[in-house]
Amino acid sequence: MLVSIFKTTKILFLGTILLIGTASSCQSNKTDGSKTHKQNISPRTDSLSYRDTSIMQISPYFAENDGNADTTYAKITYPIFSDSAMNNIVKANILLDGEPSIEVYLGNFIESYGNFIEENNVKYNLAWDKETILRVELNSPDLIMLNSSTYEFSGGAHGNSFTIWSVYDVHNYEKLELNTFISENKMKEFTKIAERFFRREEGLADTASLEDEYFFENDEFALAANYGISKEGIIFYYNSYEIKPYAAGPTYLSIPYEDIQDCMTQTGKNYITKLNEYYNSIQ
């Protein structure tokens, strides 16, 4: 059994960890590193350039057992663009609860752990951890897609994770909803096509019930709120617990463009045509 010893003074363990970092704070221990993201850009394109950076905050409380130590931490990895407007969009996709900064976003988790320790008589405890990774999934001269994934463990049987996808028009920084690509009056037809692919991926017959194995309301298939764009088709991501038990994990679904041409808007078709042109130009 892990025996926890919690201290608020400086300790050798935390000092060792901080050797890895490049920045520190009197209130929390932070590390900040970055690396350049390689761009494959042909002369005829102008997709947005960026570099990835990471920031970590570490709790002063730690657990020790037989010489092994562990501590609570919060970490985020995200892109920094040369375009300031895109950086604002990145932060908006991270600071979902209205935090004023990324440092506060991380610090809130560290503070919650400290409050938990200070307000409870904890004899045995596990370190908490939270990690957010925001990736650029698609980067073209017209469209950019962000993928924000967070894993959090704050006690209990297991941690929890969730992913949020967002698609933007690069020219006006507008977030694009699914109806940008799929006509509203064709959404029911599109959903039926998506269900066909879902059943195929899940190994279900066309008439098989969804009631026992899935969490769809009224036993009716529904599209995930998380949609994205790929070179091949429109994609959907169901987070854990959304349509299946935690043990089953998340579900990924792809609908090829060639199967949904009659459901797409002209605007959507134009986006995809330009997307294909871009990728063909850099191959």
From TrEMBL:
<dbReference type="InterPro" id="IPR037126">
    <property type="entry name" value="PdaC/RsiV-like_sf"/>
</dbReference>
<dbReference type="Pfam" id="PF13739">
    <property type="entry name" value="PdaC"/>
</dbReference>
<feature type="region of interest" description="Disordered">
    <location>
        <begin position="25"/>
        <end position="46"/>
    </location>
</feature>
<dbReference type="InterPro" id="IPR021729">
    <property type="entry name" value="DUF3298"/>
</dbReference>
<feature type="signal peptide">
    <location>
        <begin position="1"/>
        <end position="25"/>
    </location>
</feature>
<keyword id="KW-0732">Signal</keyword>
<dbReference type="InterPro" id="IPR025303">
    <property type="entry name" value="PdaC"/>
</dbReference>
<dbReference type="Pfam" id="PF11738">
    <property type="entry name" value="DUF3298"/>
</dbReference>
<protein>
    <submittedName>
        <fullName>DUF3298 domain-containing protein</fullName>
    </submittedName>
</protein>
<feature type="domain" description="DUF3298">
    <location>
        <begin position="184"/>
        <end position="258"/>
    </location>
</feature>
<feature type="domain" description="Deacetylase PdaC">
    <location>
        <begin position="68"/>
        <end position="161"/>
    </location>
</feature>
